[in-house]
Sequence to fold (322 residues):
Amino acid sequence: MTERIEKSIYLILTALSVFLINFCNSIFFEIDYRLSILSASVLILLIYLYKNHWKSWMRPLYLITWQSFFFLGSLLLSSLLLYILGSSNKTIALTGGTAIYLSGFFWGNVLRVREYGDGMTRIIHISDLHLGHGLGKGHLRRVWHKVAALPGDIIVITGDMIEDINFLDREVISLLKTEKRPVIFVTGNHEAYMNSQLLREKLEEAEIFFLDNNTYKWNNISFHGIADKGHRLSKISYPDRGKGRNILLVHQPPQENPPFDLTLSGHVHDGQVFPFNLIFTLLLKHSTGLYEGSRVFVSPGTGSFGGSFRLAKPMEISIIRF
Fold:
């Protein structure tokens, strides 16, 4: 799948979502449907520009656009709940939607630390920081300072760390270099279409090992990385295992049982917004958390897409005891 096709699918799905949300809200709140179509069209045009012609000055507008989308979604959820209860009170719907949105903004700023397993080696797992467009340097500092205070032997980042390669400037690289334990990184779908060589050089300058289609040996553990292609692979070609224990890092969680002692992934964000987590649980074999039987761990995400908004699904720094 090419970058053009990937972006087209993304835009079509986003457009359908925006139009559906606006259309439903226009019916409930009795707003002229033409105004709804106009507002939806503006949102879609802006999202297209962010995806294809990003400039750093767009960031405030980007945040307003996506937070507007989240607010409209919150209104729709409130309206649907009232409809189920047999009410059509618009004031209550607006109040409820605002409360849901503010709750999502609150949860979008909650960062928890959670430990899994009972082994002797502590792996600090970070994924889906989404830095550059929605979340910025303040979020990175918060995460990195929290990581610095945690007991751990090695740090792994399973993709979607940045949305804009220019985010990795001197200030960010200096901050990343303050961590003296080994840090290894594998790309996610947001890095898949970046200049791979430039990304590698910037990360190596920050003393982060670029693991795409590579192996990093640490003590008696071999860490293997699979480069993300920007879309879900129907069949994953797994790297050869080394001697000792083997851990696979791949951004999008495999939906079969990988032949490794442990697989670390991300991408799903635990749905980011309730009830999408329930949908992903039904659709995906591995959607979030630790799956003991298949030895797969999927991070709930250490950031969020579109800025600070996660409904009942907080961000997480995971410690895997292996």
The longest strand covers residues 111-117. Residues 3-107 form one domain.
